[in-house]
Amino acid sequence: MREITPAETADRPIVDVREQHEWEAGHAVDALHIPMSEIVERLDEVPDGAAVICRSGARSGQVVAFLEQRGMDAVSVAGGTLRWAAEGRPMVGTVA
């Protein structure tokens, strides 16, 4: 599984795989929300080249491994939304 920093996501679509309540609390601007539990059924919505993000990086790593097994280009955002927020990246809301 490949990881990139939040700053390295500039040219990639961002897919947030956290649960609805986490998404509502705060998320990256322009991110697409597809909860991890819905990835299989919504696979056709995941853009190739996606930067997958969760709270800290664990769930996004699992999703990236799944996507890579299906031949998709995907990377995990190291540190997740916690790091995203800590680095002052653009957000809707805040992350607690």
Automatic annotation (TrEMBL):
Domain Rhodanese positions: 8-93
Top-level taxon in the UniProt lineage: Bacteria
Stored InterPro entries: GlpE_sulfurtransferase, Rhodanese-like_dom, Rhodanese-like_dom_sf
Pfam families for this protein: Rhodanese (PF00581)
Protein name stated in the entry: Rhodanese domain-containing protein
